[in-house]
Amino acid sequence: MTSTAFGDLPPEAYHDAPWTRLLPWLAPYTPATARELVDLTPSPDWWITESPAVTTMTVEHEELCRHLAQLFVVRHSTAAFGPSFPTVPRQLPLSTLAISSRVATTFQRLQVQTVADLEPLTVGDLYDVRGTGHNTVEDAVTALVSAAIVRSGEQDEWDGPEDEGEPLRGSMPAPLPPVQLQMLEDLSQLAVWRHIRRRGDQSLLNVVVEDGAPEEIQELALRLNAFTAADMVSATASSDPVLEFTAFLSELDERQVRILRDRFLGRPPKKLAELADDFDVSRERVRQIESKVKDLLVGRFHFGTAVGNLLASIRTEIQPIAALDRLITLHPDLARDVPGVSVPLWLVLDRLDDYFEVTDGWAAAPDVPAAREQTRTLLEDFATEHGLVDLAAVAAATPMPKAELLAWLSWCGYTLHNNQILTRTRSLSDHAAGLLAATGEPLHIDELQLQMGRDNSVRSLANQLADDERFVRTDRATWGLASWHLEEYTSIRQQIGLELAAAGGELEIGQLVESITSRFDVSPSSVQAYAGNGDYEIAQGVVRRRESPAAPRKAPSATRRLFKYDDGWWKLRVTVTRDHLRGSGFPVPSGVASLVGCAQGEVVELESDLGTQSIRWTGLQPSSGTIKRFLDRLEVREGQNVFLEFAPYGRFDVSLQDPVDPEDHPLEQAAALTGCAEGVGDPEDAQMALAMAVDLPVDAKPRQILAAYRQRGDDDIAGLLEEVWTRPRRHWVDLSPTDPSDPGAVRNGQDNGGDASNENVAVEAEPQGQASSDNGSVSVPTGYRSVGWVRPHEAEAAVLAYQLHSDVPVHDGENIAGWARYVDDSSGDASKFRANVMLVRARSQGERVVCWIREHEAFAIVQAAAEKRPIAVRGPDGVAAGMVQYFRPGSEAAERYRSTTRLLRGHGQAG
Predict the structure, then answer these.
(1) Per DSSP, what are the bridge partners of residue 475?
(2) Residues 68-73: contacts with CB within 8 Å, 24+ apart?
(3) Which of the 8 DSSP states describes residue 551?
(4) Which of 416-430, 457-471, 488-502, 826-840 has the highest mean pLDDT?
(5) What end-to-end distance do the CA atoms of the chain give, in Å?
(6) Considering only 44-58, 818-832, 847-861, which range has the smallest mean pLDDT?
(7) How far apart are CA 156 and CA 160, in angstroms?
(8) How far is the CA of 868 from the CAs of 227, 235, 309, 864, 889, in angstroms?
(9) Cβ contacts of residue 281 below 8 Å, gap of 6+?
(10) Kind and range of the H or E run holding 311
(11) Radius of gyration from C-alpha coordinates of the chain
(12) Cα–Cα separations (whole angstroms), residue 400 to 202, 315, 363, 413, 706
């Protein structure tokens, strides 16, 4: 056997014996069980019906031997070589086979020299040899297949080399040992790879010698370590991938080029039906041409070609993702357009190689979803209990540059905080836990929501945190992680209970306020308010637990917008806001809590057609759970009025208020506002319904009904009743100040402390422009004007109204002495008076305005009363805005105006 190229062998050089005699392991195969054999030649059963002499006439020698070797390696790895290749001469030296230096090295390490030495060995034995891989084993078996099908001449009796005249591998007087040849070949191939990877200046070897080695050996190590790819292969030696692909295109016919351009590379790809119409053939025929082009591409651009080398380098960079810009920087050829198809080379490789795809500037293996999943798995390996991953750890575990890694993580939807990757942000609570863990300290709820950047309300976030055991409230509006073991803030009410328990049951109010406010961000007025309500009471300046339950603040019949309706039904009229539609809970009057039997500190659950509805009184103000499901069912819009219906036996429902017809009689309009429009046919029926709605006898007199609605604060209904039942007046109690320069001041600056001499229901309006004064009794300092004598407990109610965004009653002992009425920013009054709270005092004939008061003013009044001294009023920006005067209890001014505090505003403070 010689080194003659297999493609040049004449037919008589091959055996004419059947394939199954030469390679007996082919005998069990049929066309149904060996599809890889069927596709090799036109004859579907060639290994059964033909000989090598016939088969090699239609298929190349190397391709045939390679495919048969692959089949043997995969399916017959335990079969001995002797029985598997019985016609190969046993005395044939292995050095005469067409083998590479890698195979020769493997044979040398096995210490085998002839085919007979291989006879008991198997594929598995070759794999066991040090440094032997799959390609080397496949090459060895390919050589055996080749030797089995080529005639050996007289080699059956060959006992040794007889012809020294024609060397087998060229005229090398002293051929190198196989191992050295293999080393040179491997170094050459490694040098080529380094050039492909644009790393031609890197050392190919890394030789380490011992300290103290001879100088000659140390110099030898330096020379070897300085050996680079550029020393073996020229950077210009590599071929051009664009020209190589263009040459491939020139070998295709017109239809194949069209399919390649329009089907493979089209953006978007053309459908089979479109191409079938263009070619006037069937879709199946187009599919066949497409399949043929694919096979040509796979067989053409293997490793070793310019395109194949470029693909191999790209695959190395994509682990599992790489920015397309970085790949183009590494291989500029990727950005070049390919003539004939008019697309960049990177798109050609993307569409032709199933290993990767390019999406939105990212090259991913095998595709972007798989790369995202692999990234998620990598992050999970580093994640802490709260889903945090240290960015430095991930950067060290991936070959991507840091900037590219950050861009990829952002593209995948991950967020970064303090160099920590947040991997769990799907739910509000998971996102908050990760953000807190990355911050390392408690955050105010507003800051937490801002950092999260999600479209949710602060209230819904707080509700989520409160229901999750991972979080604790470390202050009134500050949250941390339970794993930090910080002091937990529960509520002012519970903090008071803890303080009283620690102090033996009683504690002076000043000490209580100081203890709680020094540790938590709560106002002194809030602590005082909770200390005098619900479970606690203040007696002679000492706070203790109340011995008997506190009476409800207001009866249902005295509650504004709450109306009685047939057989124990009550209806609360509510104007729907965006918060209602979003699913938030909301405050309800204490009369509702009294109606459903909800005491302070309790939660009552009502039954409805849409599930349980909760009424809770765990704070200063009772509140209702969400009614969103009811609003959705009724298709309610923001600004419409609905009635919360409380029925006997703990039933609940929501109904939509019918529009009030302005053409109806005023009494009928008033009845409609109470929810009693149905069945009201005339003013007399309306009067009876109006009486029943406020729990009066049906024969109650008009003045009794009107007084009840005035007392409750239902001004809209009272106004309609006044149109019918009262004589014309110039003005009812003026709810707006008359001094245009000071809208928050009491009319004429007079308050008189609420004594009985000022209980008019109808009063004349004062002329506009009247200057404010205190009736000359207490002078106003220069530069200020009087807003009014605001009592400390009224200011406390105003503070709570600002905090709760709802009306808060002003208590005078066990009685309600007035209200802090809250309006939101959308109200015209809020804009006019630059305040959200109006203080009113209750009178037997109606309510009287004290003033419109701002939050910082209310705080200043509470502070002045607590510290028993005058206090400067400073606005939210820290600029002086006024002053609170303090008057000693028992002094003439304090007795006359029944208040120890008076609120003044600077002349520069308009409104």
Answers:
(1) 478
(2) 68/23, 68/26, 68/142, 68/145, 69/138, 69/141, 69/142, 69/144, 69/145, 70/36, 70/138, 71/34, 71/36, 71/37, 72/25, 72/123, 72/141, 72/145, 73/123, 73/134, 73/137, 73/138, 73/141
(3) P
(4) 416-430
(5) 112
(6) 818-832
(7) 11
(8) 90, 90, 88, 6, 10
(9) none
(10) helix 306-317
(11) 47
(12) 20, 13, 12, 18, 78
Q: In what order do the strands lie in the sheet with 388-390?
A: 388-390, 420-422, 415-417
Q: 């187009």: which residue's tokens?
A: 286
| Separation CA 449–CA 885 (nearest Å) | 40
Place of tokens 């995202």: 372
- The residues pairing with 613 across neighbouring beta strands, listed in sequence order, are 606
Task: Identify the helix (H) or strand (E) that includes residue 808.
Answer: strand 808-812
Tokens for 470, please give them. 């991972």
> Tokens standing for 679?
């069945």
3-state SS assignment for residue 183: helix
Q: What is the pLDDT of residues 103-137, one digit of tens each?
A: 888 888 888 889 999 999 999 999 888 778 888 89
Residue carrying the six token digits 């091959």: 14
As a whole number of angstroms, the distance between CA 176 and CA 304 comes to 25
pLDDT at 733 over 70: no
What is the tens place of the pLDDT at every residue in 400-423?
A: 889 999 999 999 989 999 999 999
Amino acid type, 222: L
Cβ neighbours, 10 Å, residue 221: 15
Backbone φ and ψ of 98, nearest 5°: -80, 80
Q: Starting at the earlier edge strand, list the strands of the sheet with 443-444.
A: 443-444, 478-481, 471-475
Confidence of residue 79 (pLDDT cuts 50, 70, 90): very high
Q: Of 733, 729, 753, 720, whose CA–CA distance to 899 is shortest?
A: 753
Q: Which residues contact 781 (CB under 8 A, 6 or more apart)?
A: 883, 904
